[in-house]
Design a protein that fits this description.
It contains 3 helices and 8 strands. It is α+β, with helices and mostly antiparallel strands. The protein has a 5-stranded mixed barrel. Strands 4-3-8 form a 3-stranded antiparallel beta sheet, covered by helices on one side.
């Protein structure tokens, strides 16, 4: 834990922050130590206006619930800056009720048999309700293959 009690977790990215997508180069290129394929199980991925939105979906109904992405580890000396930039991109403000995305810790599976706890930006409560009611689920949970 750091002085402000936030753990220094890796980040699981599944949309515009993935390699080759719109925000990767401007926010992550040259600022990360590692980037490996990973999967978030028990989550659904929905298409939004220009961006994907994931949320917890542990039972998945009749569909396998998973989201495909990358696990990124910022360079240690840039961690706080990367965290602040990602929070700003996702319009996440700790404790605000109307966040579009919430930054939460979740277990993700990267290369290897185990899981890693990582920060994930999931759809906020109001957006999740709207997506469940009227959204378009992305089959297979992979934004790059939508």
């Amino acid at each position: 834990m750091r002085h402000d009690d936030r753990p220094r977790l890796s980040f699981f990215v599944y949309g515009t922050l993935r390699p080759g997508e719109a925000n990767h180069d401007s926010l992550l290129r040259g600022r990360i130590e590692s980037e490996v394929p990973a999967v978030l199980s028990g989550a659904a991925l929905y298409d939004g206006p220009g961006y994907p939105y994931a949320f917890d979906d542990p039972d998945g109904g009749r569909v396998i619930s998973r989201v495909v992405g990358e696990l990124i580890e910022p360079l240690p000396e840039l961690y706080d800056q990367v965290l602040a930039d990602l929070d700003r991109l996702e319009e996440y403000v700790p404790g605000r009720d109307a966040n579009l995305y919430e930054r939460v810790a979740r277990e993700v599976r990267a290369n290897g048999p185990g899981t890693v706890t990582a920060w994930v930006y999931l759809a906020g409560a109001a957006l999740e309700r709207a997506l469940r009611a009227d959204g378009r689920r992305i089959p297979g949970g992979d934004w790059k293959r939508r």
